[in-house]
Predict the structure of Olfactory receptor 4K15.
Amino acid sequence: MYFLLANLSFVEFCLSSVTTPKLTTDLLKDKKTISFGGCMSQILCVHFFGGGEMVLLVTMAYDRYVAICKPLHYSSIMDRQKCI
């Protein structure tokens, strides 16, 4: 579970660092434009990290399901290799 939480915090950090710099500069400038390439790369990164976050949340939900519903089989079902 801690392995998944560490990965979730890293993905969340990456997701917030994709949009925050452009947002901060837009708040300070009068001209609020973004290039097409910048927009596409920002959208790609947001979708990539957002998708990764969703996969991690589903994996964490499955981990908790196995821990609650099958506690005696937990160590054989959720090993380190399966988490990776």
